Amino acid sequence: MTTPQFEISDPPSDAISAIKFAPTSLRLLVASWDKNVYLYELMVGSGRLLQTFQHRAPILDVCWGKDETEAFTVGLDWDVRRIDLETGAQTVLSTHAAGVRSVVYDSTHSLLISAAWDSTLHVHPISDSNDRMANPSTIVLPSKPFALSLSPTKLVVAMASRALYIYDLKSLADLASQNTGSQATNTLDLEPWQRRESSLKFMTRAVACMPDDSGYASSSIEGRVAVEWFDPSTTSQARKYAFKCHRQASPEGVDVVYPVNALAFHPVHGTFASGGGDGFVAMWDGVAKRRIRQYQRYPASVAALAFSSNGKFLAVGVSPGFEDGKEGLGEGVVKVLVRELAEGEAKGKGAK
Asked: Is 141:122 a contact under the CB 8 Å cutoff?
């Protein structure tokens, strides 16, 4: 039986930084260090490139906006940009004081949030008026942010020094909408809903919220994933745990530890996939604490993962993470692969 997986033609020419499926269709945005965002459309057994959008510097993250005509990007030019995917027009919404690592869009509150290495969040209320853009507000963070993720009601910010802040999105939107200052940016004094210390001892690489709004998973450079719940009760917090993964035994019998670069929750079943520097993608049942399956090794490090909104496809961004110590990109090693999931392939198996 052939593997229900296909490779998209015309991939990026440099490392992949992010992959995002459209909210309702099988269109796919891919951000790359080659300074381009790629827009693809999936078809039966294949995918075609629709358009590329060039930037001034490597792009570190991308997200969809209010619909499938709009996207937002951030990267090493320090800018937060809106892209009109129909005309290709780009608008700079704000500029941080350092590279911008992550960007997310909350459709419920029409809120765009970017996180930069200047240890700030920019919060952009996106209106439906013709100009659509209000002045962003700034939230000062205690440490450099490494990853952002949204649940239906929460924003999770994973930072250096094992710091993790959880914000209530409604409170964030309410306060940002009251920002009527004329300055380019205005500082918001908003306390996070929760402050936490990461369960992971080493640098956080990725964070992803559960689709049912109950918690989140985070991963580190040291081959571990932590699963936690938002509910602050003692009973709920006693459920949190971390586990080792993406480790391979060397010929000497010693574990070689790889970073867990990517996490993505299945939108229907609530299971999640992890992608590592070892080139493997694994599927996990976070509630039952079980690995569901591990897929055949990919030709290079797994840099990014995304499930389609209907849960039937898993997109995998493959590009060298230089874990082997070799520098430079060989020809054909950057790939975007899409796996069509069989019925129940991502479904949890229940507790042992």
From this structure: no
